[in-house]
Amino acid sequence: MKKHFLLFGLLLILFSACKKGGFDATKQATIDDDKIKAYIAANHLNMTKDPSGIYYEIITADTGAHPTVSDTLQVSYTGRLLNGTIFDTEDSQTYPLSSLVKGWQIALPMIAAKSNSNPPLSRIRFIVPSALGYGNVQQDGNVTIPANSVLDFTVDLLGFYPYPGTN
User: Which fold has domain 48-167?
Assistant: First the structure.
């Protein structure tokens, strides 16, 4: 019986030690939310928080249809870190929405587009907590996106159409 208590105690200590050094998603979500709130206040932004944790502002709204995750989007966008560093910017690029980070999959269906248009008919700015962006994995490219980065996007939805192979 003593062996079982000793073994149980040892396992409990090992489990506790592993937990302390591991990634805590709940704690990171709180850190991200605090950063986002401070950023919004410092930049005098008027944003709404979605239940997912994304903060957004629809800048220009169209009355057309809304894309779904199974659609391909034509977009122009700029992505920034909260320190203002632009990590990506593109004009009129096409992407399957399902291939983009979860934050885009949540935010882009909030806006609509009638058809491919120039100037864009819909524009949204949204701030993505790290869990809905690249998470706790650093992204290396022209600009490094550190692990656990909150991302700030401004996206023009130029148009969308069903992704090939979907009905």
Answer: Chitinase A; domain 3 (3.10.50)
**60-110, pLDDT tens digit by residue?**
988 778 999 999 999 999 999 999 999 999 998 999 999 999 999 999 999
Amino acid at 38: A
Asked whether residue 116 carries a pLDDT value surpassing 90, the answer given is no
User: Buried (b) or exposed (e) across 3-15, using 16+ Cβ within 10 A?
Assistant: eeeeeeeeeeeee
Asked if residue 77 lies in contact with residue 108, where contact means CB atoms within 8 angstroms, the answer is no
Written as six digits, the tokens of 102 are 């979860």
Domain ranges of the chain: 48-167
